[in-house]
Amino acid sequence: MGAPVAIAVTVGGGSETKLAQDTWVWLEPAPGAIDIRCTGSDGGAALTTNVGPGEMRFVEVAFRPGLMGSRCAVTEVAEAQGRAAVLAGKRAVGP
Length: 95
Fold this sequence. Notes:
It is globular, with a radius of gyration of 13 Å. The protein has one domain (about 5-90). Helices cover about 10% and strands about 50% of the residues. β4 (about 30-40) and β5 form a beta hairpin. The mean pLDDT is about 85. A 4-stranded antiparallel β-sheet has the order 2-1-4-5, with no helix packed on it. Strands 3-8 form a two-stranded parallel ribbon. By secondary structure, the chain is mainly beta. The chain has one helix at about 80-90, and strands at about 5-10, 15-20, 25, 30-40, 45-50, 60-65, 70-75, 90.
């Protein structure tokens, strides 16, 4: 087992934070297409999701070991899964 890994996450090309295991951030972007990106030392990933007025989305950012370093994955998850992860985790210092 290695040390905890913090993954750099960018939302909408502007807001940036780092997420570690079992942490989360709450964002309230304007309705529309939201671009979410993560970056590791060995590669990154991106997801674009559409959020309508009053809607909520849950997105998981996960660490993936790479050949020479760390990679990450970004996946939209079901509301029940997202809520369970938030309740089990802790809020990260975010944007």
